[in-house]
Fold this protein.
Amino acid sequence: MELMQPQLEAVELVFEDRLTDLAIAEKVGIDVRTLRRWRKLPEFAAELQEIRYLFAHTVRQRSAIAKVRRLDDLFDRHRLLRNVIAERAAHADPEVPGDNTGIILKRFVNTKEGLFVETRVDHATLRELSHLESAITAQIVQIEINENKRRKMLDDEANEEDFADTADDLQTEFKPEITRAESQNRSAA
């Protein structure tokens, strides 16, 4: 049986979980007892389950997209920072020790004795590089954890479907015995 439009409206309102059953019934234009009866219908439950599944899937998908975008942004920032270091190294002064690493900052100082170069390690760039690498690693780990959860959920759903199919098969296979046992129980009572 396919659900009618008022039943589909009721499913959506039940899913939203903002209204009481009485308010949902009034909004759809039915009696609250009718709504409670509808909620027991397998088609109603299946439609509600489908909406929940689609909602969860959409949320997971958007979350995954946001994580991938954050990861792309982190990779871009990391690449740009590495480019700065490479550019510094490309213009290194062979007279300045370690300048070919790209992480040495130079400052020209004019004194009475003349102009000389003051150097120091660029700790801020190294910290930022380290921070970006940690953030990239954390983001990748989170994406992998979510992917493993998604796979497990799909496996669980497949197992539930297999279990339901097996239960249906067993019920069909043993229906005569079940019916006979139920009849015997009724006549014994």
Observations:
- The first strand starts at residue 104 and ends at 111.
- The beta strands are 104-111, 114-121.
- The mean pLDDT is 86.
- Residues 123-173 form the longest helix (51 residues).
